[in-house]
Amino acid sequence: MKDASPAKPYALHLGVIALLFTLSFVLPEYHHGLLARIMVLAVFAMGYNLLFGYVGLLSLGHAMFFSAGLYGAGLAVIHLGWSVPAAFAAGFACGALLALVIGLLALRTSGVAFMIVTMMFAQVFYLVILYLAAWTGGDQGMVVPQPMRVLVLGSTSLDLTNPTVRYMSALTLFSIVLLISLAIVRSGYGRVLVAIRENEERTKMLGYDTFSNKLAAVVISGSICAASGAAYALLFGYVGSSFASVQYSILPLLWVLLGGAATTLGPLIGTLFMYYVIDVASGYTSAYLLIVGIALILLVLFFPRGILGSIRQRWLGWLP
Amino acid sequence: MMPLLTTKGLSRSFGGLRAVDGVDFALMPGEIRAVIGPNGAGKTTFVSLVSGRIQPSSGTIVFDGADITNLPAYARVRLGIAYTFQITSVFANLSAYDNVALPVQRTLTDGRSKGAVHTGVMAALERTGLADRAQMPAGQLSYGHQRLLEVAMGLALKPRLLILDEPTQGLADSEIDNFIELVREIADSATVLLIEHNMPVVMQLADRITVFNAGRILAEGTPEQIRANAAVQDAYLGTTHG
Predict the structure, then answer these.
(1) Cα B236 to Cα A101: distance, rounded to the nearest angstrom
(2) Which terminus of chain B is more exposed, N or C, with fewer CB under 10 A?
(3) What's the complex ipTM?
(4) Residue to test with chain B: of A205, A209, A213, A313, most B Cβ within 10 A
(5) Does residue B242 lie within any of the structural domains?
């Protein structure tokens, strides 16, 4: 947001992408697979962060955008036999359209009412998935068959179930969304979003139609989350209703809070941190959620702005 | 000459209180008009109606020949009506630069190139003497500088009508002198509507003065006429004749 030289933030972000690329060749198989999953879910968190961190709109219904992408892509492959790119586009389009409709309705409210309205819409979405069990598999979900998960590009065909292909696909999506987020945040539009978060009335008095700006943010946020969901279905092959449950609306909020709301890299850090705390803790005890809870409390006590948010506040003011 | 702004029968009630009561008002392009009156006279409510922050109970507002009574506030800003707040409400967590960049990028139509935004921001900051504090968070500026930043944001909108609501409140005397110079400069390119309690400032700046009392216009005229007006002295200056 500062008018400092753009070189540092871009160098940092490209460095993170390069690091993730290198990790693909050195990580053991288990962590390799986990990191691919984390990158896809970090995209979900980045989409959430755009709305929550920058615009200050706390939605409790983002599971519906993720699962719109998940089911949009999954159903297109399973029932219509669509190719991977077409299915991804279908998932993305479902999420974007849903976000537009939900945004038009939910943005009539603000604050707590906005939280409740988004949560209710997400519950409706969840129940519809369960109700249409004949197509969606209900609470059992569906597995996307392996032969369908092949990306054909000209004469080469990439098997998305291959660990390296899967990792690189996840990294590609992650990198694109990360750089888009960075560009949005540093743009004039990003400045308007932050202004709305800080003082919406004042922003109106500078000539901004804040409703339209917020609606655009909901659509961008929902589309990014849908891209994450569509990628999840195609890369990991499971389309399940649990991804539409309220738990998956809370999780991105936690990841973003942990990593640092309104930081571009915070969503990745938060998702990574949460996954590894659970992973390590569950190796020692079956009561791993207790350890996760304690870790969360400690973070909130000592890093109330999240990991990256606190680092930015104390040491690195230039972090975007 | 056609007035830039006219209101006809403009009224706004809050419950039983008629804060603004049937005001007919006309403002000529290029003038500096001061609005004065005792506390609770309806001055701030009146300019809030003009800027669109609150809706009138009845009456019409015409700006540059077009009826704007039903336009939302942001659309009026785009027509050229800028409002600076009585209580300073800069974006405290954003830098002074970003505060001014918001209105600058709004008014640019050339694809909002970064270079053009930067030029516009620095011009507005230099005009208000804040250029060397561009990267400071606005909340850490002194009160006087926050008021100036508020004006810089108004200026950056390139308004045709700039509404200043008690701009000198809380400023030191030395800052007030600079401020008077600044408003004179602004008036070269815009019409200024100024709500002000500080009488020396009003007398130095205003071409004409409108006096509000109990939601109505009590008197209107040049500073000399207002100074000599017995009704104004009774209502506002508290002078007793007798």
Answers:
(1) 55
(2) C
(3) 0.84
(4) A205
(5) no
